[in-house]
Amino acid sequence: MAIDAPSKKKVPYKIQQPLKVYLQYYGRYRSLPVQYEDLARFSMSTSLLDRNGEDTLWQTVYYPEWEMDRLYKGLTEIYALLKTDGDVKVLEHLSIARIDYCIFGNTRPFRIRIINRLNDNYDHFYVKRADASRVYGLELEDILSPNVMTYFVDGNTLIEEHVAGIPGDEFMLRHLNDTEFNQIRMAKEFVKFNERCFVRLLGDMRAYNYVVDITPDIEGSQFRLRAIDFDQQSYEGRKNFYMPKYFKENNPIIFLGIKHMSPETMVQYQLEERSLIAGRVKAARIQFDDLMEVMTEDEISTPEKVAKLSSELGEHHKSNAFDYCTNMGQIVYANVDLLLHKSFKQSSYEST
Question: Which residue in 27, 110, 119 sits closest to 75, CA to CA?
């Protein structure tokens, strides 16, 4: 059953003091030389086109000359903070090549292209409006997934590193016609990605909201799906919204799974990923508990969506663990807590 887009545009949630204290303790809250509002004061913009001349929906933005030196110096310092914990020795050969502004999306991000003048190699990072939902999503990704997320917050500004990979929609178009061995590995990774999203309740993982990281291996390639959009971390009230397999945009890779894997094999991969997530929780137990202590007291969705998701998850798991949840943080904690109980099993891939 395919599902539609979010019910309406998500509103951003302010970072409250308890979350700020958590971020400070774990080194995520840093004083930044450039704020989001500084970049928002651009003087002109032009449409950014792709290699085929198509509009990317990004705008390349420009600033008054008297502002550029300060902004560009501050942005290179932020890049050094992301990559070398602020070691300014790397700044000598770095310069800002371009700043792009996204005209859609909840956080209205700026994408900074930074270039090494010694070899013309470039990298990107993002400056966004800080949103508590997104910050919780980034933290849960860092703790519960195999991926390390580097980001910083300062007031209303969020800095994120670039996640390298092929956008999921492009991957579907150009890379599925591969050997059967690689197709099986693609399908396996999608099952595991679906499980990771559902356990930590990361929603809206249609193809353009994640990338595919491909690593050449001895016999074929390894594939990893990595979320790049965390705005819909435990916000919507529909259970299926947290399962990537229900988005029609993901059908091509889902059909590979149907073609190459039996339901029993899919269950095996689900249980493997669930075991890995449980291991990650145990390895970072103190930090996870600290995050949950903050999240279970925060408000990042509406009471109506909380009630709906609590009801649907309780029915799905045949559990009363969600009966007394009054916010999304409590629902996430209950969902992960079910995972940690050995008795929590699901009979088939279709059940999730």
Answer: 110
